């Protein structure tokens, strides 16, 4: 049925729903339905969900290719679909869910919570900060504020954290499970080379991300300076990798392309009994993209392995690119130096430190990106002021549970 004849049919008979193979076209013109006039297509999904465990209990391959609804009926809050007796079930799709998953045309709305605020050195005037009391409060509002800061800025400070391992661990666990690695669970280190890594020295460390030698680098990194006596130095360096990349893309697009295309092998081999390299070894560039959007920074010159997978011209191209990348990373406009310990999005913000003297004790933890995003998603559902859908404010169809748009 053409769109025009479909519209004519709807105007005459009310809402109409037409299936085409694995799609359903939903046409909504009826004034009784809380929607702007529109026609859109969604994937036809046989919805048979176990609400309590938020998983589907059918197997997609067992759905007959010619499956069609017996009846489709519009309701104030969504669409009710009755399936044939061979697979007897009634599905209900909230309007908000239908709009979120329509693809012809796509009607989904961008999530405000995922908007990133890029920053340079001027962020020192007002760095994102929450208090320890806020984060630890049982109402979770402070925790949401903390993770919202990290989502927007790629880092946040927490003020007033007691300088103990126990308090640092409790703070980390507010987000999720601590990720144990070959450095241990909660690290507690001094400049004693207890581990074969430059972090365990007094050396200055240039801006870098951690775990470039892992296939899945940690999502968050939490630092906490417990003590520093008999010396000075050891300032924290933060650089917004997405900010630097945005400048590079504007001014030197070919260099940006090189850093987005050429994979960089890395390794961690300082510990006896372990040699970590990402899998595949050469698969991950400095600037990793997803659907043309920058998704992750992976950069640690100290962990880089030999670039033996490139041609001679590519080697030259890559070295030229990293010279410029380094120049922008280390510019006064990019570098934010501070004497505080942050939590950092390791997929976006690079960290480093100045050299130091004296005795310095630092602790911290890695948290997986999935743990961080899970907690942030749950709290976004709980606190975000986003309406349930453009058409209705009915809380019953708010995007929670199985109708969360991620599911
Ligand atoms: Fe590091």
Write out the CATH superfamily name of the largest domain.
Clavaminate synthase-like
- Ends: how far apart? 31 Å
- Helix amount: 10-25%
- The string of secondary-structure elements, in order, is HEEEEEEEEHEHHEHEEEEHHEEHEEEEH
Number of helices: 9
Kindly estimate the percentage of residues that lie in beta strands according to DSSP.
15-25%
CATH class of the largest domain: Alpha Beta
Radius of gyration: 26 Å
Ligands bound here?
A: fe (ii) ion
Structural category: alpha+beta
Write structural notes for this entry.
- Its cofactor is L-ascorbate; Fe(2+).
- Belongs to the gamma-BBH/TMLD family.
- This is TauD/TfdA-like domain-containing protein.
- Pathway: Amine and polyamine biosynthesis; carnitine biosynthesis.
- One of its GO terms (biological process) is carnitine biosynthetic process.
- Helix content is 24%, strand content 24%.
- With 407 residues, the chain is α+β, with helices and mostly antiparallel strands.
- It folds into 2 domains: 3-111 and 386-403, no CATH class; 114-379, Double-stranded beta-helix (4-Layer Sandwich), CATH 3.60.130.10.
- The protein has a 6-stranded mixed β-sheet with strand order 9-10-18-13-20-11.
- Helix 6 (241-251) crosses helix 7 and helix 7 (253-261) crosses helix 8.
- The longest helix is centred in the C-terminal third of the chain and has 18 residues, at 312-329.
- The chain starts with a helix and ends in a 24-residue tail after the last helix.
- Residues 27-40, 43-54 and 386-400 have low confidence and may be disordered.
- Bound molecules: fe (ii) ion (FE2).
């Amino acid at each position: 049925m053409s769109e025009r004849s479909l519209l004519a049919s709807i105007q005459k008979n009310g809402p109409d729903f037409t299936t085409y193979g694995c799609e359903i076209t939903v046409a909504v013109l009826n004034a009784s339905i809380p929607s702007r006039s529109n026609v859109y297509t969604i994937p036809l999904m046989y919805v048979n969900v176990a609400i309590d465990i938020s998983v589907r209990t059918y197997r997609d391959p067992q759905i007959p290719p010619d499956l069609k609804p017996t009846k489709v009926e519009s309701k104030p809050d969504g669409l009710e679909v009755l399936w044939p007796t061979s697979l007897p079930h009634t599905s209900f799709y909230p309007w908000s869910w239908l709009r979120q998953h329509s693809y012809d045309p796509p009607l989904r709305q961008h999530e405000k919570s995922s908007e990133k605020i890029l920053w340079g050195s001027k962020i020192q005037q007002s760095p994102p900060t929450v208090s320890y009391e806020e984060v630890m409060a049982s109402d979770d509002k402070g925790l949401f504020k903390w993770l919202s800061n990290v989502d927007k800025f790629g880092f946040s400070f927490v003020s007033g954290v007691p300088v103990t391992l126990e308090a640092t661990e409790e703070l980390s666990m507010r987000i999720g499970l601590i990720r144990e690695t070959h450095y241990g669970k909660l690290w507690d280190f001094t400049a004693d080379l207890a581990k074969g890594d430059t972090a365990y020295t007094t050396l200055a460390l240039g801006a870098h991300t951690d775990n470039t030698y892992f296939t899945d680098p940690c999502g968050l990194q939490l630092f906490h300076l417990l003590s520093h006596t008999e010396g000075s130095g050891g300032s924290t360096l933060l650089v917004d990798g997405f900010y630097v990349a945005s400048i590079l893309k504007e001014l030197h697009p070919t260099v940006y392309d090189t850093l987005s295309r050429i994979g960089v092998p890395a390794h961690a081999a300082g510990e006896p009994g372990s040699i970590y390299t990402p899998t595949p070894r050469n698969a991950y560039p400095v600037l990793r993209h997803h659907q043309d959007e920058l998704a992750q920074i992976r950069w640690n010159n100290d962990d880089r392995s030999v670039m033996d997978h490139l041609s001679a011209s590519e080697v030259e191209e890559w070295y030229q690119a990293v010279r410029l990348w380094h120049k922008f990373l280390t510019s006064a406009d990019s570098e934010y130096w501070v004497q505080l310990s942050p939590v950092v999005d390791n997929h976006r913000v690079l960290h480093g430190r100045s050299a130091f003297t004296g005795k310095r004790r630092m602790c911290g933890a890695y948290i997986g990106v999935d743990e961080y995003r899970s907690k942030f998603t749950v709290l976004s559902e709980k606190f975000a002021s986003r309406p349930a859908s453009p058409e209705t404010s009915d809380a019953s169809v708010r995007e929670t549970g199985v109708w969360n748009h991620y599911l």
